[in-house]
């Protein structure tokens, strides 16, 4: 019997990059369905790694665990403890833990070059990445340590305060761009001279790439406008490309990120605002035929989020979607879960409609602002609709219910 996931796997065909979205960072079904689909892609189509909207250092700890590294954490819960920067629930949750255990078992009898990986390609971990580089270069007695120490010393006076650094770099010309670019260049040269599957060298290089692009991100952030968004999404694409190169010719990547990143920006109002995103850039660089993007959405239910940046996580009610929105139309077409493939008869899906997007900060009282005008058949190749969804299950953390 053909299942709904079978339909998606067949539609993906020979794509080498599959982009799996989510309408929120706090919905259980989005995580579990992405996990099940990723399993199928790994088992049946030979996909090589998962790249997620997360920090490189914390995701790399989980990567070392699932690859059975000798110095990895002893169990999956310990491996997930490094997800300690807000919003912790994005990756330190039961849904990710269950999938990580599956990856661990899958890799248990595989040679190193056949093991799947799990990597964070976001840009926020500037200080954490610098510390990771320093620690590794010190342990290995690497000659690049001097450049790393110089870069770290440049950032150190800002006490891990991105706003303070951004203001100094943008308005006082007191940035650290030269130092981190020099460090990245040194580590790239080092990586070229190391073995093709030397993952520690890849980690140093990606941490340095984070430092370079995070410096640019925080500098542009204080100026406002679309530049900081574009720096972030271009970084994620560059990080993904470097990991694919590490895995070699023919490698295939699965990306887990919010719909606002993986759905083509050209099919939304982002284009008019001068913004690009991962979905657009990946299609442009690799070709539409090599990329398959799947959006996810829900009509109502609960979600794990906070009502302010850095605030306590709460299980919040997600009200029924607004009249005339994409999610409302799908609900009215039948109160059941659905999969839509935009490969034929796309005429009905070429109109611009509002498509719900929930961030880590959410307040249903301002629901009207949570809809992105979208041409769905151009934004995605397929869409997974969950009529009623449930909040994520965070690990070992107190959750408020509202």
From TrEMBL:
Give the stretches traversing the membrane.
none
Q: Which Pfam families match?
A: Erythro_esteras
Q: Give the highest taxon in the source lineage.
A: Bacteria
The cross-references to InterPro entries, in alphabetical order and at most eight, read: Emycin_Estase (IPR007815), Hydrolase/PRTase-associated (IPR052036), UCP036794_erythomycin (IPR014622)
Identify this protein by name: Erythromycin esterase family protein
């Amino acid at each position: 019997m053909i299942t709904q996931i079978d339909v998606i796997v067949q539609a993906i065909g020979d794509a080498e990059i599959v982009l799996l979205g989510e309408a929120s960072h706090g919905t259980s079904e989005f995580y579990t369905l992405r996990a099940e689909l990723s399993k199928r892609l790994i088992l049946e189509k030979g996909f090589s790694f998962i790249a997620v909207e997360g920090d490189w250092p914390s995701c790399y700890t989980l990567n070392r665990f699932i690859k059975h590294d000798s110095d990895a954490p002893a169990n999956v819960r310990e491996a997930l403890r490094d997800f300690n920067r807000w919003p912790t629930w994005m990756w330190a949750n039961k849904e990710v833990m269950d999938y990580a255990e599956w990856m661990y078992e899958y890799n248990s009898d595989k040679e190193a070059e056949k093991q799947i990986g799990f990597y964070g390609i976001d840009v926020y971990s500037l200080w954490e990445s610098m510390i990771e580089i320093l620690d590794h270069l010190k342990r290995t007695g690497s000659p690049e340590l001097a450049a790393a120490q110089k870069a770290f010393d440049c950032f150190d006076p800002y006490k891990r305060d991105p706003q303070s650094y951004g203001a100094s770099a943008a308005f006082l010309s007191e940035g650290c761009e030269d130092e981190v670019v020099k460090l990245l260049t040194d580590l790239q040269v080092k990586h070229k001279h190391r073995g093709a599957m030397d993952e520690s060298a890849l980690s140093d290089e990606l941490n340095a790439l984070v430092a370079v692009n995070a410096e640019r991100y925080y500098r542009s952030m204080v100026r406002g406008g679309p530049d900081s968004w574009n720096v972030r999404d271009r970084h994620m694409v560059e990080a993904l490309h470097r990991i694919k190169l590490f895995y070699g010719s023919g490698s295939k990547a699965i990306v887990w990120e919010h719909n606002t990143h993986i759905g083509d920006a050209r099919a939304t109002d982002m284009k008019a605002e001068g913004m690009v995103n991962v979905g657009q850039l990946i299609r442009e660089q690799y070709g539409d035929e090599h990329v398959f993007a799947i959006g996810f959405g829900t009509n109502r239910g609960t979600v794990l989020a906070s009502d302010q940046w850095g605030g306590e996580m709460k299980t919040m009610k997600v009200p029924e979607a607004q009249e005339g929105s994409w999610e409302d139309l799908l609900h009215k077409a039948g109160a059941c879960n659905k999969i839509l493939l935009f490969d034929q008869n796309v005429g009905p899906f070429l109109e611009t409609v509002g498509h719900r997007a929930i961030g880590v900060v959410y307040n249903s009282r301002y629901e009207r602002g949570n809809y992105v005008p979208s041409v769905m058949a151009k934004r995605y190749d397929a869409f997974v609709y969950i009529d009623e969804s449930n909040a994520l299950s965070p690990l070992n953390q107190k959750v408020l219910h509202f």
